[in-house]
Amino acid sequence: MHVSSLRIYPVKSTTGIDVCEAVVHPWGLNNDRRWMVVDPAGTTMTARVHRELLHVTATPRRGGSIELTAPRMEPLHVEVPCRDVSVPLTMSRIESGIGAGVAADRWLSRLLATPVRLVWLDDPRRRTVGTSHGGRPGDALNLADAGPVLLTSTTSLDRLNDWLRETAAERVERVPNPLPMVRFRPNIVVTGVDEPFAEDEWKLIRVGDVELRFAEHCDRCVLTTIDPQTLASGKEPTRSLALHRQWDHEVFFGVRLIPVTTGVIRVGDPLVLR
Predict the structure, then answer these.
(1) Cα(237)–Cα(226) distance, integer angstroms
(2) What's the rounded Cα separation, in Å, for the pair 87 and 100?
(3) Closest CA to 80 of 101, 102, 56
(4) According to the model, what pLDDT value does residue 84 have?
């Protein structure tokens, strides 16, 4: 088993960036989900509702800054805020972020056609992993929903795509194109797993020199049903997951992990069960 891809999402709910290597911090991969778009009340704006966010690319630059790009928009460089302009947030386990500034707010408000703000998480140690999500005292978290690192396997995706084809055949529907892994927004994708969903049972793994422990199975929301290219939505993969991977009224794909140690992981690194 080895890492076949690594992906970060510098601004929550925007498109991912493939990287060849990544520093693993206690709160997640470097540059992953340190920024977030919120409405004037501090509520998180996600691509579940504002699909245009999936066409925004936030490319990390030197010093933690980012460059925002999107179709029909001029690129915008956003520096890490040097002024502590506190923005109240409604997100769980974090009371506030730091405002990114007027230029970023205007850029994103124009794109989404509604007033929004861009905020930065200055210190991820201010936010913790909830105990209901496998967190322990001291576990830190970036602006991800529930866990620092999401891992998926290509073997499990292959099985899911088999189910999609079987479901379509049973319903006499057009055979769908295979779903790409980007639908599931993982940080680490593993290839070479012997059995589909074997990752469900992993308790402790080592990737390169970094150890990560299992936190929970990842419940999947409606975002997986939205095509990140066309922004059109459909019934899959939720429909097929509901037939094969549903419990507690949720559907599941992938596992959330919490770093036990820190270090650098790379594409091609072996994955070893501990």
Answers:
(1) 10
(2) 10
(3) 101
(4) 86
